[in-house]
Amino acid sequence: MIAFVRGQVATVGLTSAVVEVGGVGLELLCTPGTLATLRPGQSTTLPTSMVVREDSLTLFGFLDDDERSTFELVQTASGVGPKLAQAMVAVLSPEDLRTAVAHEDVKTLTRVPGIGQKGAQRIILELRDRIGAPTGVPSGSPATAAAQADWRGQVQQGLVGLGWSVKEADRAVETVAVTVDDTSGDAPDVGALLRAALRTLSKA
Q1: Domain housing 72
Q2: What does each of the 204 residues of the chain score in pLDDT, given as a tens digit?
Q3: How many domains does the chain have?
Q4: This prediction's pTM
């Protein structure tokens, strides 16, 4: 198993990034929130999880070990594969997910594309004794100011990468834009804005 990747970011796309390690470019599938923290030419260290199939080896990259552990744990629930697990950590932070499972919050879980009411109930039933109790730590991982400078483009690209149309993504961006204080001087939290935009689309 490849536990983490450390190297220089070669490229950043809508759904993945390529990190050069020892002269080899490794493609990592990442959530939009993770991709928003990466810039070509910069060094990075990303925890990873490898999914092995008969015809493929897929490497997923994450912001931190907690996100990776959550990604791997939710796949132990019936009907949750790597793609749905990645969508879960894209929409909900690990702490948000622990809180939703602990409180049997079906509504929060169904915000994730691909999870219906029955699926959410099954996930709660199968994970509530294993996912752990909420820690009370605020959700959302802060990215650097440089990574968040163009938050509108990053959120829009992230939504498109998750399967929404450009029109839908633009509408969601405008909806969450009203919550951003452009005069504060602080860089917006792209991960939090992305999750907020996904929630508006899920309600539509």
Answers
A1: 65-127
A2: 789 999 999 999 888 999 999 999 999 999 988 988 899 999 999 999 999 988 889 999 999 999 999 999 999 999 999 999 999 998 898 999 999 999 999 999 998 888 999 999 999 999 988 888 887 654 444 433 333 446 777 788 778 777 788 888 888 888 888 887 655 556 667 778 888 888 888 776
A3: 3
A4: 0.67
Distance, in Å, from the CA atom of 191 to the CA atom of 93, rounded to the nearest integer, reads 9
Tell me the H-state helices in the chain: 32-35, 65-74, 82-91, 94-102, 106-109, 117-127, 145-148, 151-161, 166-177, 190-203
Query: How far is Cα 148 from Cα 190, in angstroms, rounded to an integer?
Result: 6
Q: Which of 28, 121, 149 is nearest to 82 (CA)?
A: 28
At a CB cut-off of 8 Å and minimum separation 6, what does 156 contact? 166, 169, 170, 173
Shared domain for 72 and 116, answered yes or no, is: yes
